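A common beginner's mistake is to predict each chain separately and then try to dock the pieces by hand. The better habit, illustrated here, is to supply every component at once so that their relative placement is modeled jointly.
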Amino acid sequence: MQVQVVQNVLKINDELAALNRQRLRAAGVFTVDLLGGPGCGKTALIEATLKRLVPGLRVGVIVGDLATQRDADRMARFTDQVVQVNTGKGCHLEAHHVMQAMTRIDIDRLDLLFIENVGNLICPVGFDLGQDVKVGMFCTTGGDDKAAKHPYIVCESSLLLLNKMDLLPQVPFDRDLFLSDIYRLKPDARVIELSAVSGAGLDQWIDWLGEQRPRRASAGGNDDATAHPELARK
Amino acid sequence: MQVQVVQNVLKINDELAALNRQRLRAAGVFTVDLLGGPGCGKTALIEATLKRLVPGLRVGVIVGDLATQRDADRMARFTDQVVQVNTGKGCHLEAHHVMQAMTRIDIDRLDLLFIENVGNLICPVGFDLGQDVKVGMFCTTGGDDKAAKHPYIVCESSLLLLNKMDLLPQVPFDRDLFLSDIYRLKPDARVIELSAVSGAGLDQWIDWLGEQRPRRASAGGNDDATAHPELARK
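With all components supplied together, the output reads:
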């Protein structure tokens, strides 16, 4: 009976995610579900990205946390298309959260949508939200064993980020071990090392978004966005 | 129907946790469920604690991770009473995991048992394992907003740890904000600031264990443990 219920929950989630995806693609919005443990730097990366891309690109953010709207307040300095979802005791965003949040932003006036998931390396991986890509984030201060310990996020993410490279000299982190664990789990993994604080690696991240965006969000939307100098760099 | 199933799962968990607690207390074992996000330093703290307390005190560890037995390998340098639980996709330990793990260590030859939960600030909070105390761990590199964003772990923990104090000068972390969020949520919270790496604050942590242990694990066991010089310091 428990399995049946879990299957039902996932089935409903998949149905709602498909509706989200249909709506987002029709509007030409490229959607990134950003996953990572608490404090790995998801909000800081989105802030740094907004700083680079807005106003040339129209970027929205849906951000999930158990409580507070602190992240939304941080993002709101860069874009007014921000929705904070508070999940209460919920450990991940589900498609219905995103569907509700989408009613509070103007999807038709967006080129790029970040969904910052609840800080959790585990539970969010299994839930489709309607995104184009899932991006999994680790950080140097979190230890070099975290990829090996979390194979599902490694395998399910289109891109893996290793954040807080500026702190690498301060912490015991075996970069070769971390990377070899990733490539053992996923030989064709794409990894970008960066620091949302220092800005190192941000060019690669912006380039990656630019590569992905026209390829995936091809169902509609504005051409001016792909012509954005940052995203058109390559 | 979904709620019913969740209630059943929690009810079964509570029943098994009660059995674990009965068995551990009868053996005079003081049991700590250590909770925190991935990479906050749970394993490093247990290592540092084992280094201080073993062999004067007989300490066991049950450690949960989705995959790998890296943490157990690290602990095994200090004690042979170590069990690694791999939860697969499971985001927290449940009482049945602990019950099974307890069959693989000699409970009657233990004074103190650490259960290192899966790295997750959310899901483990709601599951009783049969522990005496839950201890919630944050870290300076994880950001000063994490207590406010995770009220349940703040409220449900007997002690809160702020780890990685050695890195405080390197990171943007407003200590006053972090602490005021905690005391707003739980006015009588007990907080210890420490660094498992530098050793700062470890005395307070060891003292706290010593204060708690005789008070809670009073149903049996050996007196020599409470006479351990480290735990008898106060």
